[in-house]
Amino acid sequence: MAFLEISGVTKHFGPDAGAAVDDFSLSIERGEFISFLGPSGCGKTTTLRVVAGFEQASAGSVHINGVDVSSVPANRRNVGMVFQAYALFPNMTVAENVGFGLRVAGQPAALIQARVAVMLELIRLPDYARRYPHQLSGGQQQRVALARALAVQPQLLLLDEPLSALDAKIRIELRSEIRRIQQELKLTTIYVTHDQEEALSLSDRIVVMNMGRIEQVGTPFEIYNYPRTAFTASFVGHLNLLPVQVTDAATGACTFEGTPLASSQPAPNKQAGSARLAIRPEELVLNGTGANRLSGRVLSVNFLGNVVRLRVRVGAVELSVDMFNERKLVLPAVDAQVVLSFPAHACWLMD
Amino acid sequence: MTKSRFNPWTWLWVTVATLYFFVPLWGTFDFSMRMKRGAFTFLAYEKVFADPKFLDSFRYSATMGVITVIVSIMLFVPTIYWIHLKLPRLRPVVELLTLLPFIIPVIVLVFGLIRTFSRPPFRMTQTEFTTDILITAGYVILSMPFMFRAVDVGMRAIDVRTLTEAAQSLGAGWLRVLFSVIFPNLRVAILSGSLITFATVVGELILADFLVRPALGPYMIVVGGGKAYEPAALGILSFGLTWICLGIIQLVSRGDVRLQPIGR
Fold first, then answer.
1. How many domains, in total, are found in chain B?
2. Which residues of chain B lie closer than 8 angstroms to A85, CB-CB?
3. Interface contact A134-B184, CB threshold 8 A
4. Does B261 touch chain A if contact means CB atoms closer than 8 Å?
């Protein structure tokens, strides 16, 4: 049995309500960093709250380290939690906040003091012990919240959109900080987010969720490059979709407005007919040598710094094309005619 | 604001309001100082303080005030906390209920209390102690709108639910959450509710009068019926007491860092 076993968890809020979480099962190994990724209302936070013990599952069970905790109250699960709203206790100093869990556990004062010092060192705020939460910035408050959750040495760390209330720069900084600390402590962690960039950059595995169900579980590389459902494909990263006619379901050959295109995978429903061909913007190459070629007209050129994003009209559809910036890059002019190419292995057919 | 700072209308209204408020007050004060013909003395105040009945009734009312405050806090803080946490949909209903003392006259309340609790099986008006229990219950109801509002606003200023969950995830049980997290962060709210409750009880007349208890309100009426200068002095005194209460609220809610109601 894995370190954390979530089996068949289902949650209804009220007898008539639909399932907020529907038959969620997942095994998480010790030391793994798992992200729950999905749009708001997809059930990711509810699942996390069931693991934390703040919600009682309507069905299913949660095992931590082999122990069924389904009916153990939140305060006896030894699970650390970090909230989007920081939730530091306003009446306590940073040191008192971090030491709160240890005081509740009845640890001796000397031990608490030592442990608080270690934790403040870990979050790199050693000089802030005597400050009050309202004297700290949002990013600092969230670090303290992290230290507070870690001080009690929880079996499991749960983070509920911890960076959503922070501005972009702090977010990226704190993101790598969270990962560093998690690696240092080898702590089993679940991270809830709607931000795909966070999930992709932090996680060992990502759980993509939609409408209370798991869409796909996999490493960031698998999720991004081999999405198994249309939802995952469109939710994670940008995706171009071409309406095509499948000509050979077994090889994945098809035509787009008369142009023959090759894909490397068979059609998902194994039959000819209408389908959509999916391709990531960065796989499209301007005037390249790929097997598939489409010609179109440039609609717009957006320079984003490291990436240049083009919009190109091909027949009846508009495609996004991403190119890496380099100093010798020659940008096509708006209205210029271009040929886009991509290899067969870069695209796949969807229903 | 880009408007002129010396808008004459502003000053006119400030002056009118100040006069409206202070002229009667000054008049009462002036009158209370003229007990001795042709002199300006504190004689009326001396007489008030020299009357043992004044001190007794003040002591009684103050004691009842403190008891009422304690009962109100014990009753309302956990109740409102629970409503915020578990039954947020019930909040408007409870809020409406707490307004009832404003709608139902005190005289109706006291008759209801007497009719229900003075007959068997309660017979609560038979002894002074049980009558005091009854009057405390009445005071709690009378001050309910103030206490509820103060604590409710305090609860809304902090994120009760998330703070509770944060404390729980760190191992804290319900009592721990209540006493280490909720109460300290509601200090200002509870204190302001308490002081208004205290002032309400000390100035209350009808409950004490009908339940025949030696409170300050009935005493003031008796004094007012038979004397001229002392009631004015008493009026100024009770006004001063209320102001002191309000002053303490102001002082504390500005307060130092530890008493900040919310983190910023």
1. 1
2. 159, 162
3. no
4. yes
